[in-house]
Specification:
52% helix
Length: 291
Amino acid sequence: MESPESVFESHRAELTRIAYRMLGSVADAEDIVQDAYLRWSNRGDEDVVSPRAFLRTIVTRLCLDEIRAAKSRRMDYTGPWLPEPIVSSRDDRLELAESVSFALLVLLENLSAEERAAYLLKRMFDCEYAEIARTLDMSEGACRQLVSRAEKRLRARNPRFAANSATAEKLADRFLHAGATGDLESLLGVLTDEAVLISDGGGKRLAARAPIYGAERIARFLMGIAGKAPANQSIVPVQVNESPGFLVYWGSELHSAITFDFDGDRICSVYFVVNPDKLGHIAQQAKNATV
C-alpha cells in the first residue's frame, strides 16, 4: 500500500500545473500545492475514493480563495499585471509550461474565478462535469454554463490565427534583430497594425504604466528603450511557456523577459516582464543550472 506521501507526490506535477494556470504565479502555485500537501497529510482517517479528484478539489478551492484575495491587492498594483513566465531553452520545454501559452494566461485574467476554474478543469485537465460541480459546489448545469461563457469570452478577446512554432520563432528573431539594429521599417513589418505592448514593472522597475497600442507607437517606444540599454546588455533566446522569447541581462543581472502572441505571420502582442519579483525563479533556475 502506498504511503500518503508517495500518493501525493504522484499527483504533484498535475496539481502544480492547475495552480499555475489558475494563478499565473510560480511562487503562489508552489505555496498552494504545499498547503494542499499539509491538508492531505492531516486529513486523518478520512476515506478517499479518488485521491486525484480529492487533491484537485483542494488545490482548486485554495486557488479560488487566493484569486479573490488577490483582487484587492491588484487594485494597488502599479501599471499592468502580467503572469510570471516559465522559461526553458528553445529545445527543451519545461513540463509545467506544456499546453499553456503566456497569452492565454493573460486572457484568463478577464474571467471570473469560477469561470477560470471550470474552464481549466474541463478543457485542460479533462475533468468530468460531476467532479467540477463538486469542486465548485454548483450544479453540473451551472458548470457547463461557466465553461461555455468562458469560451465565448476568450474567443471574443482572441480573434486571431495562431502561427506555427517555426514561423513564431522566425518572427521573434526578426523582432529582436530589428530592435537591436534600430531598423524601424523592419520592426513595423513584423507587427500587426493593431498590436499591443504590455510591460509589467510592478512599480519596482521602469516600465510603461499603460498598454501601448498600434505598431508605430510600439516601434518608436522600443527604439527609445533600445537606445538606453547599457553596454553590457546581453540577450538570450529562450522558450517562454509555449512561445519563443528572450531573457535580457544587464551584466549578470536578469533585467526582463520578453515573449509574444502571434496572428498568422505577424506579432500581435508583445509582453515585457520587468518586475524582479516575477523573475526571481528564472534567475534561481539559471543559477542552479551552473552549480
